[in-house]
Amino acid sequence: MGRITLDKVSKAFGDVEVIPPLDLTIEDGEFVVFVGPSGCGKSTLLRLIAGLEDVSGGEIRINGQDATQTPPAKRGLAMVFQSYALYPHMSVRKNIAFPMRMASMPKDEQDRRIEAAAKALNLTDYLDRRPGQLSGGQRQRVAIGRAIVREPDAFLFDEPLSNLDAALRVGMRLEISELHKRLTTTMVYVTHDQVEAMTMADKIVVLQAGRIEQVGSPMELYRTPRNVFVAGFIGSPKMNLLTGLEAEKHSATTIGIRPEHIAISSDSGTWKGTVGVSEHLGSDTFFHVTVEGFHDPLTVRASGEVALYYGDTIYLTPDLTHLHRFDAQGLRIA
Amino acid sequence: MARSVSTNRKLVTTFFAWAVGLAIFFPILWTILTSFKTEAQAIADPPIFFNFHWTLENYVTVQERSNYFRHFWNSVVLSGGSTLLGLIIAIPAAWSMAFVPSRRTKDILMWMLSTKMLPPVGVLVPMYLIFRNLGLLDTQIGLVIVLTLINLPIIVWMLYTYFKEIPGEILEAARMDGATLRSEILYVLTPMAIPGIASTVLLNIILAWNEAFWTLNLTAAKAAPLTAFIASYSSPEGLFYAKLSAASTMAIAPILIMGWFSQKQLVRGLTFGAVK
């Protein structure tokens, strides 16, 4: 069981309110990702749940029990830190054993769990090494192993992949998703990388300046962003946002169209533009197109390889069924 | 050309470093040499460097006249005891200053350090009276307390700088893992800070070993350490330089040897943070 409820939880450091009162429910077994730009309060929110920071107001309930004043270790949560936070003076085995040693678990049970975790995380050959002798990915796995053996109600991940290189990050992303499927334990995951959020989450919580902008499944957020911020934050490359005359044509203050919802033609279309920089990924090509009268260049996605070059003139047509409209407050118009 | 300039510069700096090193070491060397001379040779003018008749008679006389080993043992108890007591107080203090600082932490650190600027003689009379009234005069426990107190600011400062280098996330991880405050300090913080703690211990032992003001003023015979042993030879009977030197050599030898073997650790400790 790992159901976490935040009820009007707020946090202030001195006079600065970093998290205004917010409500959130994380269901048992869910993979929830907190995502937002740096400084949006996502890590602080995670630390409030962990108990590493005291809340300034509101209530945190874990499995229905008020845990607002419960010390971190008694909340039944395990945390994986960005810096891994391994104990450098202990071997991998002792690192993984530490939480069980603190809980005075019988030695044979400790060994059994260490072996199981090491096997699951490919660490069996490294159990007697020190963290300093491991690679970044291995250290991260040790940190996860240390969390697993406690058999917590929920795992908390604080940007666990941001210290890894790109290739390793994709691998670890899959491993963590795999782990979630296998354990079916609640996971709360903090990241600033919206790709991680989209690929891993059952439910994404988009945060900005301590406020929740939207909560929903990745596809909900992609299809129906509640406001301009979410529209611009979720999706890669970013949604094209247009204001002014173009938006007024659709009786909105801002309109948004994703790069994949714009058709390219060489002879006719709604907008006429000039091809600028193009990014060839093989499977896709992204064009940055300057359209007369538009403030920013549009990003357009074409499938596969397309023979268009810098300076070519092209015509673009947005797919109106995928057009997002927002009002003066930046909220979605249904 | 650049090469020859740098070689020259190297030569000059090496020479200069040796000159400074010798100048600092000279008094100790002179003391050791004098301890092997006769009293007449010790005060000879012009001074004799090496071509004197080497003798051990000063050492024999010193050991006959006063009990070196009792003083030595007192020095060991005082420096070891005050260091241990200091650590027991300073580790939790430095922990709280490094990891749960308040707005006043920096001020408290400065204030603690400022007590080192006080001339000890300024509080000699009240301290003496307190010690007399509590029956602590000339006791090991009394001196251990005084030495702990005078060195505590340095121990706290040094440990504070070491603890500051330890990432807070590791201690938070320990807290998440169920460690109580005691186990957090005992199993995570202290082992990680061992190099720093070792340097602190070494420096503190040396400071306590050499402390002369309080040990001379608050002891008579029973608890007197080696400093008092040396002082007893600069006596009103007249100056016996050779015997005084023999006593000094015997007093500084243990700490000199310890310092020699641990110099790497000491230098690392004292420059920690500066060169990281």
Key structural traits:
heterodimer; A: 334 residues; alpha+beta; Rossmann fold; OB fold (Dihydrolipoamide Acetyltransferase, E2P); six-stranded mixed β-sheet; five-stranded antiparallel β-sheet; B: 276 residues; mainly alpha; MetI-like fold; 14 helices; Transp-assoc_OB_typ2 (chain A); ABC_transporter-like_ATP-bd (chain A); ATP binding (chain A); nucleotide-binding (chain A); ABC-type maltose transporter activity (chain A)
Structure write-up:
The complex is a heterodimer of chains A (334) and B (276). Chain A has a 6-stranded mixed sheet, sandwiched between helices. Chain A has a 5-stranded antiparallel sheet with strand order 13-17-14-15-16, with no helix packed on it. Chain A has 334 residues and is an alpha+beta fold. Chain A is built from 9 helices and 18 strands. By secondary structure, chain B is mainly alpha-helical. Chain B has 14 helices and no strands. The relative contact order of chain B is 0.14. The A-B interface holds A 50, 52, 71-73, 77-79, 81-83, 85-89, 98-99, 102-103, 146, 150 and B 167, 169-170, 172-180, 183, 187-188, 191-192, 194. Chain A: GO terms for molecular function: ABC-type maltose transporter activity; ATP binding; ATP hydrolysis activity. Chain A: Residues 4-234 form the ABC transporter domain.
